[in-house]
Amino acid sequence: MDETKGVAEAFRDRWVFLTGVTGFLGSVLLEKLVRSCPHLAGVYVLIRKKKKFTDVQQRLETVLSLPLFCRVDKDLLRSKVVAVEGDVSLNGLGLEDVARRMVIERCHFVFHVAANINFNAALHQALSVNLAGTQRVLQLAKDMVNMKGFVYVSTAYCNCTQRDVVAEKVYPNRWEVDRLLRILAEQPPDVINGSTDRILGGHPNTYTFTKLMAENLIASERGDLPVAIVRPSIVIGTLCDPIAGWVDNVQSGAFAFIAGAGRGVFRTLPATGSRVADIVPADQLVALLLAAAWRIADTGRLQVFHFTSGGRNPVTWSEYCRLAVTKLRENPCTGLILYPRASCRSPTTVRHALYVAMAHYAPAYLLDTLAKICGDKPILLDIQYKYSKGMAHTDYFTRNEWNFSTANTEDLWSILGETDAKEFSFDVGKINWPTYIENCVLGVREYYHKQPRSTLPAARKYLKL
Ligand SMILES: NC(=O)c1ccc[n+]([C@@H]2O[C@H](COP(=O)([O-])OP(=O)(O)OC[C@H]3O[C@@H](n4cnc5c(N)ncnc54)[C@H](OP(=O)(O)O)[C@@H]3O)[C@@H](O)[C@H]2O)c1
């Protein structure tokens, strides 16, 4: 491959089609594309219409005005990013004919990031978005006249049923993709949902199962399309690019824990402390997505890339918990409800359930009742439920650990030129856990709890009282 033509050059005068831009990773990817690939022609972003917004352009504006985009010129951003209305669960992605034609004629790369990431979404819903949706995006990519590469964001845990080293290859499932798609087309949602356990087999939830089936679909239907399947483990805030600790939601359990423990309402991390917390930074992941696109555009092959930290730079759940609590005490939230204190507890024990009831819900219930008596608004139970949602159904992943092969990712890293290795770094060996977790704590405080840095000195003083 021509290594003198680096990653950014692969996007010179190219158009990109991107799904999932209103989500955490899609927005980080869009920012990096526009900032680090200056000769990029433009990006079409597929956005669903939502009631709260007049149109998809307004939804795009909300994304572009996030602090994440602070290093990109706003005019440049608006001139390069084009919103198209669509929904991956609809036939033809719900694209209007004109938009479809434009995308097909212009685009060279597709990054399919959108997914239903709710672990326990109803099977019908998860299949519609994650499997049938991927088929629709893949078909669009195959229709593109100038197609150079299709990058699919999968998950390392789609192979969580594997007990040996998980290889960078697509693992078949006893279910055939065609059969599942036929069931989806022919059976009513409640019949499909009623068969969830039977269909999932050993999978712990509908998310990992449908992501695995999407990989199988891509492998069997890609034809000669160059494809990269990138499998990250648990993705949390950015390491440093474009800002440290960027986060816009706390849907992942590891982040929900920081958000909840930061307010003092979480006292326990449901995990086996000695197991590896396989966490990776969002900015490194998007750097890998771009480098993978560059690679497959050249090789024309299907390649799978694991993006995990456990093998090279591991941190355990108890270490993660200890670091998070230490950093939360050093950088406390304003309006702290209880002193930040937490430890790992095995999520399957009765002791843990009792502890959650006593240490999380009982004080929240009591203080809310007191608030009501004093004429104040009760908020604690709501907060407790909100953060608990992010932590729900994660115990399968915090009780177990996997050994992911990362040979392809390491090989890709080794062939990056010097400039690319700086601009598109995905070297997990560089993660300094105490610094990174502190930045994530600060990021959750600033971008999620919306507490500006200027409020830190007062919050620190309050905690010392
Ligand atoms: N975050 C992680 O820890 C992690 C780890 C491994 C893999 N991944 C993978 O990374 C990808 C992105 O995850 P994320 O954390 O960024 O999730 P996220 O914040 O929930 O974003 C999901 C995105 O998908 C879009 N989407 C969902 N259903 C759609 C539909 N029917 N049509 C069009 N767009 C739809 C959402 O749009 P709306 O705003 O309209 O809902 C949103 O933009 C997913 O493929 C996920 O499997 C994530």
UniProtKB/TrEMBL annotation:
Question: What InterPro entries does the entry give?
Answer: FAR, FAR_C, FAR_NAD-bd, NAD(P)-bd_dom_sf
Q: What keywords sit in the KW lines?
A: Lipid biosynthesis, Lipid metabolism, NADP, Oxidoreductase
- On the tree of life, the source organism's domain of life is Eukaryota
- Keyword Transcription regulation found: no
- Any idea where the Thioester reductase (TE) domain is? 18-287
MF term (GO), any: alcohol-forming long-chain fatty acyl-CoA reductase activity
A GO BP annotation? fatty acid derivative metabolic process
| Catalytic activity, as annotated | a long-chain fatty acyl-CoA + 2 NADPH + 2 H(+) = a long-chain primary fatty alcohol + 2 NADP(+) + CoA
Q: What does this protein do?
A: Catalyzes the reduction of fatty acyl-CoA to fatty alcohols.
Task: Please state which protein family the record places this protein in.
Answer: Belongs to the fatty acyl-CoA reductase family.
Q: What is this protein called?
A: Fatty acyl-CoA reductase
- Protein species of origin: Ranatra chinensis
